[in-house]
Predict the 3D structure of the following.
Amino acid sequence: MVAYCGAMATRIRYAEIVDRGVRIGFGRDERVVELPSRWLRDHGDDEASTDPRTRQRKVDTFAIPADVEPQELTFGGGRLTLSWSDGATTGHDAGVLADLIENRRRPRAARADRSIGIDPELDLWVGESEPFSPVDAESLDHPEGLATMLGLLHRRGWVMIDGVASGEQAVAELAGRIGYVRRTIFGDVWELAPGLSEHLDSAYEATDLDVHTDCTYSNDAPGLILFCCQARDGDGGESVLVDGFAAARDLASGEPFLAGALTRFDFIGRYVEPGVHLRAERPPLQLDPAGYLVQVSFNNYDRAPILPTDPWVETVIDAHGAFHQLIADPGRQLRLGWRPGRVLILDNWRLLHGRTAFTGDRRFLGCYLNHEDLQSILRVMGIIRR
Ligand SMILES: [Fe+2]
């Protein structure tokens, strides 16, 4: 029996029981897929299969008979309902099924040549083509304003907010609109100013700072950095931002072999001070299993030695240098000036940041946040679906 659904918006046009599963016809190009019986029996979204509040699985996956088969199928109102040989009935939202079938993160054909995939939802940018448009802090009190800020942060990897109050509480409250403050060896909300002697790091000087990502020595590097300017006078001291995803895309286009090397060879990040010795390793360009770029890690200050006996050492050095040549190009960089009450939030898994040398007073409070918490609020607010 073939069941047709009138709700074309679901993208699934018909469904029918076949041997060992259900055949689904969907999409404008009339694609057909067959979903296996055991998979369907396990993936219902009815209340017996899945808790509607938490989406936690309730079905006993491992008690499903290996030879389970659908007995009856109905399809209407955007839902597929199946009666099974083990006596169960499962329901399936046709839109959710279509999303799973169409999953745009399925392995790409290009994966075979190790090219670098970029999430098409992101707006990659190069240098001053990037518009400077600070968000007003008061706008964040309204859901639309918060969604605007989060959308900017998601799509371009950074957002600037003006009019934020001074002090630690204001920083923690602003972080709380996204997730929560991530505690590290630097504490919760930390202070950043020249001459602070609590930690031995180049960030506490007044010299220029080459572009980098933070915490390459952490297995789960913080996903966001929040800087809140508390005081500023003097010259220089601009923050420098580079879109690391755009640089990776362009390296893959011009030097695919070197870009591929940066996806395959781990670099070691290291942080050492009295009582602390952190170390983590991962490739500078981290891809997900489908070949999409998910994280850039690049910090030459904190890089531990590359092994000189590695047979690929020359390639690794070439690739490292080629990527740095791109991110150090002033034409790719965005420079942002500071004044008290101004906040910069940047995606530390995508953007590299640095600063120009400066004179005078330049003090910040700041904090880290987890990348997964940004993803969480983006899903909750409907800005991303995956
Ligand atoms: Fe940094």
The chain has a mean pLDDT of 91. Residues 113-380 form a domain with the Double-stranded beta-helix fold (CATH 3.60.130.10).
